């Protein structure tokens, strides 16, 4: 069994290749993606963590990701998510590779956000606002730049020092970036607002969103987590990564309870968008929202690319 550390995993996942790979995967019907297994660590466990087990397979590969979520890690200066990914031969069950699950998760999450934006963000979207400063947040300018001509990036974080550090990192990489503290003003000025946090209370209010803006919600993934208030969905064209989001996303559950997202409606999924079964943005003035809770299909697609890149070399 081969081992791919963080650097090797990361090197195989450039967004100009990963986003099209996800588009192909979602358009296909070849993979089997069971619901994730969710286990909350019991009372008395330090950190009150959650364990997710996410399998997926096709005729060639079987992949299983284990991801541990400890939201309180931020106070310790640690990432909130830690993951490992094991790829197997689907014909024999032989283990092929152990990969850095953090890189798999971060890159596929950012790539899925970019894929959603390719259908929902305005074609001329250039100003990106990122909420969060973790692994996924750091990748978002590069991900969105693979589908839109992003030329200005702002970042907000509940810890201003984290936003300042990330903005400085991006500037060192040649990105026009700045940290902001006035969140309402930053949201109003953005073409794309991307939330990559573990928030349990809404950060973005619908009243702040400009006509024609695209709201990307990719951080929260449980009923107790939310990044946007129900007004964000009112009158917006909404899409989701998978139907699992309807049961798992606190943002969507709140919006349905408030009546800003019809309880009887099922927003189009990435699969339906990629197959051309549902339409994306219809005009430059409508607001759009993409809500993702993550899919094991995305993990399998990213891991397969890492493996294939290595075997080709």
Key structural traits:
13 strands, 7-stranded parallel beta sheet, globular, 313 residues, ornithine cyclodeaminase, domain 1, Rossmann fold, alpha/beta, 10 helices, 6-stranded mixed beta sheet
Descriptive notes:
The chain is of the alpha/beta class. It has ten helices and 13 strands. Helix 3 (101-120) packs across helix 10 (296-312). 49% of the residues are buried. The protein folds into two domains: 2-104 and 297-312, ornithine cyclodeaminase, domain 1; 121-294, NAD(P)-binding Rossmann-like Domain (Rossmann fold, 3-Layer(aba) Sandwich), CATH 3.40.50.720. The chain has helices at 6-11, 15-27, 101-120, 135-145, 160-172, 183-189, 245-248, 250-258, 270-274, 296-312, and strands spanning 2-4, 37-40, 50-57, 61-69, 81-89, 95-100, 127-131, 152-156, 177-179, 192-195, 214-217, 237-240, 288-291. The protein starts with a strand and ends with a helix. The mean pLDDT is 94. The strands form two sheets. The chain has a seven-stranded parallel sheet with strand order 9-8-7-10-11-13-12, sandwiched between helices. Strands 1-6-5-4-3-2 form a six-stranded mixed sheet.
């Amino acid at each position: 069994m081969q081992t791919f550390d963080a650097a090797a995993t990361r090197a195989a996942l450039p967004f100009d290749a990963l986003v099209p790979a996800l588009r192909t995967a979602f358009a296909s019907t070849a993979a089997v993606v069971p619901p994730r297994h969710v286990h909350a660590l019991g009372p008395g466990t330090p950190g009150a963590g959650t364990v997710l087990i996410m399998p997926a397979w096709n005729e060639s590969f079987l992949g299983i990701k284990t991801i541990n979520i400890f939201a309180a890690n931020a106070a310790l200066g640690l990432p909130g998510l830690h993951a490992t990914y094991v790829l197997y031969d689907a014909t024999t069950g032989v283990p092929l590779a152990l990969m850095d699950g953090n890189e798999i998760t971060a890159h596929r999450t950012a790539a899925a956000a970019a894929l959603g934006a390719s259908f929902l963000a305005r074609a001329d979207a250039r100003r990106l606002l990122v909420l969060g400063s973790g692994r996924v947040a750091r990748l978002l300018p590069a991900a969105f730049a693979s589908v839109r001509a992003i030329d200005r990036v702002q970042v907000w974080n509940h810890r201003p020092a984290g936003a300042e550090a990330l903005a400085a990192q991006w500037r060192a990489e040649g990105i026009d970036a700045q940290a902001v503290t006035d969140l309402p003003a930053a949201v109003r000025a953005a073409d794309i607002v991307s939330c990559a946090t573990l928030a349990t209370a809404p950060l973005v209010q619908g009243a702040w969103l400009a006509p024609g803006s695209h709201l990307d919600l990719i951080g929260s993934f449980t009923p107790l987590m939310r990044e946007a208030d129900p007004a964000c969905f009112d009158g917006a064209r909404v899409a989701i990564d998978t139907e699992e989001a309807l049961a798992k996303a606190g943002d969507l559950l709140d919006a349905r309870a408030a009546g800003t997202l019809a309880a009887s409606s099922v927003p189009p999924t990435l699969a339906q968008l990629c197959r051309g079964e549902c339409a994306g943005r219809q005009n430059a003035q409508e607001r759009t929202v993409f809500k993702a809770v993550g899919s094991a299909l995305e993990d399998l697609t990213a891991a397969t690319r890492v493996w294939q890149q290595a075997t080709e070399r």
